[in-house]
Write the structure tokens for this entry.
Amino acid sequence: MIAVDGSYGEGGGQILRTSIALSVITGELVKITNIRANRPKPGLRPQHLHGILALKELSNAKVKGAQVGSTVLEFAPGEAKPKHIHVPIKTAGSVTLVLQALLPAMAFTGGSFEITGGTDVPWSPPVDYLKNVTLYALRKMGIKAHIELKRRGHYPRGGGLVVGRVEPWEERKPLKAIEWGKVERFAGISHATNLPAHVARRQAKAAEERLRELYKVPMEIETEVSRSLGPGSGIVVWAETDSLRLGGDALGKRGKPAEVVGREAADELLEALTTRAAADRFLGDQLIPFLAFAGGEIKVAEITNHLLTNVWVVEQFFGRVFKVEGETGEPGVVRVVRRVEV
């Protein structure tokens, strides 16, 4: 049994997501204690539970402690096989956080998924970031995954719908992405749901104007206007470089001008670009479980507690895998010193 202390480091849901995914991949029984112990509401929340249940279905697992509020979980995977996984989050719980658990495991089995819930909600990656930044990097590692957004879901109503599929990971290509040398173009998606079309246009215009202050490269930010259960808006912008893509995003809210939303996303992206690192701080921690199996090295715009915690979780299963060079809160390099074979 692999024992994981859920209060370690960042101490959030990422420990849970990575641990259960690695349990499915390796076939190892895992026991996680002190789940989210330092949070205002400790234990499993509904969005964590949906990720666990998705991986339970994928691997025919036996699970103890899979209920809201539980601070201890035992997950004993069976044989993982390609399946169609349906995850019905009835709130605005994050679709992308469920996918953070499901994608690493599904890379080894293949399969498809259909997830309802929140596609653009606070404290989680927007679905457009996952689709256009994260999957872009994973493709360079040999992972073929496809995501399609069918309907937006904003806080607090949810109601979003995302479908997709993952092919079995046949060729594991090491990823070497240290610094970018050239920004080739900017792109993005600005959306407004149950709101006037000018909201999406103003977000896009503000982001584009901010980016053009510093970069004279081709730029295309799409606008999208849609209907769903509740109102909301947001924007994701990314820089396509000669290495990877770096992203920035922002969400609208009542009383927050669309121009502020657009500039906020652009400024987040520009801040990452100033470091010359190939990966922004969000992409860095998302790639950690995949890097363990693919090998390589990446420079990240910021070494975050999320990244260090994810490194720690991987090494609870496999021993030393990574070397992290740099201080927390600063740019740094993550190297795979021993690639994991499974």
User: Anything to note?
Assistant: The two ends are 17 Å apart (CA to CA). Residues 197-212 form the longest helix (16 residues). The chain has a mean pLDDT of 97. The first strand starts at residue 2 and ends at 5.
